[in-house]
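Bumping with the actual sequence this time:
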Amino acid sequence: PSVPELYQPGYVEALGQFTVKKFLFLVLFLDHAKLTRLVDHDPCLFMKTAAIKSSREVLLSFSREFLGGIGDLTRHLNYKGYTVSHQQTALQELDYTVKNLAIDMRDGVKLTRLVELLTHEWTLTAKLRVPAVSRLQKVHNVDVCLQALRSRSLVLTDERDRPITSRDIVDGHREKTLALLWHIIVNFKVSVLLNEESLRDEVAHVSLLKRLAPRPAGSGAADLLDGSAAVKFPSENVKLLFEWCRLVCSIYNVQINNFTTSFSDGRAFCYLIHHYQPWLLPASDIRQLTTLTSQNTDTDCFGGDSDEDDDCCDGNTVTRLNHVAECQPVAGEGDV
């Protein structure tokens, strides 16, 4: 208008109708966005400290404040097909930050939320009993998580092939808790991070290098790829990763039979680094006397009758070394 604050008749009513219409559209959009998980990590729609925590309460509060005499606004909107149903619960407001693995996983809530995000099975947390105060409630929550994993053909056992049960997690069994997390990582993340085509190319390249490399006399390198323990692989990518580790380590006369004990003394990790970055970790810095090698030496010593066995079984031979700590990267002056 040419004159400030001077509008034609009906302007204020039209502006009010426009504002109400946009407000109702906004509430409807946010409600359906929550119901359809428009945002994948599904954040809370209302603040934790808010007095109103449902879409219906928002409409009722708006009608009381600005639409006098309307009554229950949601009832009138239902006749037009306008329905809202989102209700924010205490479970959605829960802080899922993990600060202590020995404690935070025991109630099963965070574990189930983790599996829910990875599997996109959004009904899992609805089965939880929160707050989980009693032991039975915690066992039930962990069972929800384990059943979801088993439904995807995951074999939940520790490194000794002992089954991982819900009571183990509730009781705070750290080894089995870590084993469960490792199963989740291997089955849901490792297969995604590994590139199958690149792995196949690298396996073929390392295999060619092994055939061309001179074989050390009396090293027994020919048997390093034979007779390994049966290993179950969750995917083809993990199987290729294992084959790559075996091929690289066999070049340096280190046998790889699994992802657990074969890597326990650190030599496998050191040789993997040395193979691709020899200036960072020279072969001379890798100690051969470790827990695994000393155990083999002990077996050889006690199995023979020669006088040399006495020297073989001295205290230096059976010393256990923290091999990974000894293998610190060594860089030259010109290295960056």
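The tokens above came from a reply further down the thread. The chain has a mean pLDDT of 81.
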